[in-house]
Design brief:
Elements (H helix, E strand, L loop, with lengths): L2 E3 L9 H8 L5 E3 L14 H12 L6 E4 L11 H21 L3 E5 L8 H18 L5 E5 L12 H9 L7 E6 H7 L6 H14 L5 E5 L2 E2 L10 E2 L7 H10 L7 E3 L9 H12 L3
Parallel strand pairs: 1-10, 2-3, 3-4, 4-5, 5-6, 6-7, 7-10
Antiparallel strand pairs: 8-9
Helix pairs in contact: 3-4
């Protein structure tokens, strides 16, 4: 089982690998720069080389990068949209330099402009980025929790985006369990997990699924809220995660983005996942 967390790059980007190894992760996710700034810090050659060497010589693969918080690929605001498009290109380039194979992106919000406008913006942004950035970095589209004006909460919406791309083979899917549950996909029973997987396969295709963000949900099924919870302590529950981890989803790399609080540490969440995967 490939399992890990989002890891800090504080101090030097290669230190993220050290942190992942020290904590016993076998995969991990990073931001390549400060996620709350538009302009990223330049990658330093020495750090980049150290990052690549540490990943290649240790069992912490694959590595995933995540787009920063500020970009909105569906934004109707021209200035924000232009900066978002530039950031997408920049992040693809940074992943290529770091030899990171996957970049995860949220699909953004249409901010009231409507789904049609949002779809057009997202498809144009990705198509433009792929024209500029020719390479082997795969962009992973992450499903959303169906919060107000958000894009990509349903399998049909994600499929619509993929089908509109000039290079659909260069995108995959990151499936967030908390987001899916909040959007209305039940993940609590063996039958509902298999139904959800079957629906995904029929509409998008399981070959597109490359990563699972494994998170419980603070809120109920179809709550349309994006609130993560510790594994088994939310509305999906321990039995839900037993069923998830025994399904084909459990065979994919698993990245946890659980809360940072005193109730349970990251290591304790990791142990809980291993425990549930073993049927304990």
């Amino acid at each position: 089982m490939r399992i890990g967390f989002h890891v800090s790059i504080m101090g030097s980007i290669d230190k993220a690998v050290d942190r992942a190894i020290d904590r016993g992760y076998t995969t991990f996710q990073i931001f390549t720069s400060n996620p709350r700034q538009w302009k990223p810090r330049e990658l330093i050659t020495k750090e980049t080389e150290a990052f690549i060497k540490k990943v290649s010589s240790n069992d912490v693969k694959p590595v995933f990068a995540h787009m920063p918080y500020l970009p909105n690929l569906a934004s109707p605001k021209d200035d924000v949209y232009a900066k978002s498009c530039r950031t997408l290109v920049s992040e693809l380039q940074r992943c290529s330099k770091l030899e990171i194979s996957y970049l995860v992106t949220h699909l953004g919000s249409h901010l009231g402009a409507g789904m049609k406008s949002g779809f057009a913006r997202i498809i144009e942004a990705i198509n433009q980025a792929f024209e500029v950035m020719r390479g082997d970095v795969m962009l992973l589209l992450e499903n959303t929790a169906a919060t107000r004006n958000s894009m990509g909460s349903s399998f049909e919406d994600i499929s619509h985006i993929v089908q509109g791309l000039a290079y659909p083979e260069r995108v995959g899917i990151c499936f967030d369990t908390s987001h899916a549950f909040a959007a209305g996909y039940d993940l609590r029973t063996q039958n509902s997990v298999q139904e959800t997987i079957g629906e995904f396969d029929e509409i998008i295709g399981l070959k597109k699924l490359r990563l699972v963000h494994l998170n419980d949900s603070k809120d109920d099924l179809e709550a349309h809220t994006d609130r993560h919870e510790h594994i088994g302590m939310g509305k999906i529950g321990e039995e839900g995660f037993r069923n998830l981890l025994r399904s084909s989803l459990g065979q994919l790399p698993l990245i946890l983005e659980t809360p940072k609080d005193t109730r349970r540490s990251d290591i304790e969440n990791l142990r809980k996942v291993v425990e549930l995967a073993r049927g304990i």
